[in-house]
Amino acid sequence: RLEEFLKKEVDLELSTLPDFEERVIDFSEVEQLMNSINTIPAPCAPVINPQAPNAATGTSLRVCWGLFSDDTVECYQLCYKPVSSERHSDEQAEHTLKVKETYCTITNLLPNTQYEFWVSALNASGISPPSERAVYVTAPSPPTIKSKKIRSCENAALVCWESRDINPVDSYMVEL
Length: 176
Prior knowledge:
Organism: Spheniscus mendiculus (Galapagos penguin)
InterPro entries: E3_ligase_FN3/SPRY (IPR050617), FN3_dom (IPR003961), FN3_sf (IPR036116), Ig-like_fold (IPR013783)
Oligomer: single chain
Largest sheet: 5 strands, antiparallel
Mean pLDDT: 85
Radius of gyration: 36 Å
Domain Fibronectin type-III: 46-142
Strand content: 25-35%
Protein name: Fibronectin type III and SPRY domain-containing protein 2
Pfam family, one: fn3
C-alpha cells in the first residue's frame, strides 16, 4: 500500500489563502538586558596612599595607590600638578600619565616642591571618579658649602652653606 500511495500525485493546494498578521516584535529591552549581563561595571574610585618615607629624591617621587574593590581595571590615569600658594594655582599645568600598575615614579620634578596627585581607574565600561587628592613633596637640593668661609681650630669648626631651594628647608644634617 505504501508503494501505491507514493506513486500517486498529491495536490497540496489550499482552498483558502491563509491570513497572517504582520507583527513587529520589539527586542530592545531584551537586547539591553543581554548586553548588561556581558558588560563589566565602571570601576570605583582608587585610594591614593600618603607619601611613604624615602619615596622622594630632589627630582622624583614614587606615588602608590590601591583599590578597595574587585573591579576590573585596564589601566590607571595619574594626574598631578605643583601646589602653589598663588591665587591662580588652578591654572598651573596639569600632567596626566597612563599607568598599568598601582604605583608610578614621576621624574623631572623640582626639588623641595609640593605636588598634588590624584588617580582614576579605567576599563572598557568607563572611568572611575578620581581619588582624593594627596600632596607629596620632593627632597630639597643639597646645599652649597661656602668653602671660603670655613674656619677651624683644635676643638671646633665653622662650616657655612647656602640653600639652593626656593622653599625653606626644615633642617639640615651635618655629617663629619
